[in-house]
Amino acid sequence: MTLSRDDAMNVARVLTEALPYIQRFIGKTIVIKYGGNAMVDEALKAGFARDVTLMKLVGMNPVVVHGGGPQIGNLLAELNIESRFEGGMRVTDSKTMDVVQMVLGGLVNKEIVGLINESGGRALGLTGKDATLIRARKMLIEKASSDLKSPEIIDIGHVGEVESIDRKVIDMLVTSDIIPVVAPIGVGPDNTSYNINADLVAGKLAEALNAEKLLLLTDVPGIQNEDGKLISTLDDREVDKLIQRGVITGGMLPKIDCALQAVRGGVTTAQIIDGRVAHAVLLELLTDEGVGTMISAGL
Asked: How distant, in Å, are the alpha carbons of 92, 202, 215, 225, 253 from that of 31?
């Protein structure tokens, strides 16, 4: 297909605009939390795989961490296993954990790996149990008690939080020009498996790898102010003020907390971006405008 002069000029403009960003991120580690609608829409899935492949080809070091909550819920329903939630977390008994490992470590992980490989990249899938990448501990949640005294401590089963990350296995893959695709399953004492929130894993992995960026794909445009307008840049102190004023609430709070911990832990910036936008990752990395909200640590 022959491009018109205007189309060719537009392509040249885009490439020229991208060049300084490519130069800036060569050799840098960028951790991407992949989830939401970007994981279920076929066109967005293919576009994401191409974006990650391109990042690697131009010299960046992408590391993908993925979720899979809806896929887990669907399979549990098919198997007639009840899904229960406490404090927004899935109660995970041993049967549920078997399904979690099957879906995250198998179905979802291998699909992402396959799409990246099909796009010309070289990806390898692993869970946090492989080479003891993610050491985990049991997560206990607190629930206010009716007597207004001490909170009730609830055991939600095989749900964990990150205790430590051994970066050596990721470093080995990155230096071998392989794109790691990580399922958020950790290993605890006695080889116990734990399901961990993918945002938390992505943030802790970004810290452990001294990443340049943490990208969190969501199903919203980013952080918005009281008037519903997108805020393109914030530092951690400004985020704290928005939380105190009730501007940031609900399901965005865990992602914001993950981003704040990452930048306070040494990650240069964290971006909350709209994964419903085609090629959102490249638009955020390689254009002047971006497609989300960038969070950095205050001076």
From this structure: 27, 7, 6, 26, 20
DSSP state of 296: E
pLDDT less than 50: residues of the chain: none
Distances from the Cα of 4 to the Cαs of 1, 7, 11, 13, 109, in angstroms?
Answer: 10, 5, 11, 14, 40
Distance of CA 45 to the CA centre of its chain: 14
Q: Which long-range contacts (CB under 8 A, 24 or more apart) does 142-150 make?
A: 143/86, 143/87
Cα of first residue to Cα of last residue in the chain, in angstroms, is 51
> Closest Cα to residue 268, out of 196, 194, 193, 215?
215
- pLDDT single digits (tens) 65-107: 999 988 999 999 999 998 888 777 788 989 999 999 999 999 9
Q: Which two tokens stand for residue 108?
A: 């979802």
Among candidate residues 222, 182, 234, 173, the one with its CA nearest the CA of residue 206? 182
pLDDT tens track for 270-287:
999 999 999 999 988 988
User: What is the rounded distance in angstroms from the CA atom of residue 63 to the CA atom of residue 66?
Assistant: 10
Q: Which residues pair with 188 in a beta bridge?
A: none
Residue 269: count other Cβ atoms within 10 Å of its Cβ: 18
- Per DSSP, 123 falls in state E
Which two three-digit tokens encode residue 188?
């605890």
* Element holding 215 (H helix, E strand): strand 213-218
Alpha-carbon dihedral of residues 234, 24, 126, 129, nearest 10 degrees? -60
Q: Which domains does the chain have, with CATH numbers?
A: 25-296 (3.40.1160.10)
Place of tokens 């070091």: 61
Which spans in the chain are helix H? Answer: 5-25, 42-57, 69-78, 94-100, 109-118, 168-175, 198-208, 236-244, 252-264, 280-286
